[in-house]
Fold this sequence. Notes:
Elements: E1 3-7, H1 12-23, E2 27-32, H2 40-50, E3 56-60, H3 66-76, E4 81-84, H4 91-96, H5 98-118, E5 123-129, H6 153-172, E6 175-181, E7 184-185, H7 194-203, E8 207-211, E9 217-218, E10 221-222, H8 223-232, E11 239-244, E12 250-251, H9 252-263, E13 268-272, H10 287-293, H11 301-314, H12 316-319
Parallel strand pairs: 1-2, 1-4, 2-3, 4-5, 5-6, 6-11, 7-10, 8-13
Antiparallel strand pairs: 9-12
Helix pairs in contact: 1-2, 1-8, 3-5, 5-6, 7-9, 7-11, 9-11
Amino acid sequence: xxxxLVTGAAGFIASKVTGVLLAQGHQAVGFDNLNDAYxxxxxxxxxxxxxxxxxxxxxxxxxxxxxxxEQAWLAEGWFDGVVNLAARAGxxxxxxxxxxxIETNTTGTLNLLELCRTHDVKxxxxxxxxxxxxxxxxxxxxxxxxxxxxxxxxxxxxxxxxALCYTYHHLYGIDxxxxxxxxxxxxxxxxxxxxxxxIQWISEGKPVVVYDDGTQSRDFTYVDDIARGTVAxxxxxxxxxxxxxxxxxxxxxxxxxxxxxxVGKPAKIEHQPAHKADxxxxxxxxxxxKELLGWQPEFSHxxxxxxxxxxxxxxxxxxxxxxxx
Length: 325
């Protein structure tokens, strides 16, 4: 049995990753500052489920605060590995407040890498993003594509975090796996993401905002598949950057139509202009994940949507009030 630190533990992906580690019999310590980047009720809902496990402990910690982070780390004693999933996410929001993205995504990663160095922790997993890829990259996106021209502060902050990971691997021999996640969705997902928004807006008869004409496509990836792949990345790999995606892009309007059918209501669509930081399509080449991890997605887009709609129905009494922006 190993002991892992999972940062951002109350977050969408991190809570699922923590659940997988606990199911495998490991100990998991969760750090999260429980910020209000989106409605904290979702974070507390996920966290309460994790707290039912006897091998889980939680501390409210901001990884961007070096002193606070070090104190919490020392109180826990030791770790076999660190899974850094704490992040400020979202392309459009990062344009409005880039500073908090650098503080969490870049400085927070540096703080954790320094603690790994000084306490001889040899395994580090970083959550990165498909937002590093842009219109200049051919699809499907491969890990060796040029990602030196990020289109948003969010992408730039993650690019910097990736670079720091390589530096610490090179200088100190830390084994690092960097995952570039592609549009993760599922039950209890982030309320600022399209899938959650569409489900809530259609269910409650609210206007459904669609940016551009809705023909843009996304490589939607189900959260359980992402969590399984992330835990597989804890094996020794040296330094690797790995895409985790479905390899089956879905046109946004097609996804909306599936939700309409499952909810049983038509959408009241309002089109708005595309954002300059958005890309027209995302599509993951997942060959490296298959070869290095033996991983491939198991859930179809329709299965994932069905599970997300079911979760919303089961939690509608409070989920209907969650802010989606």
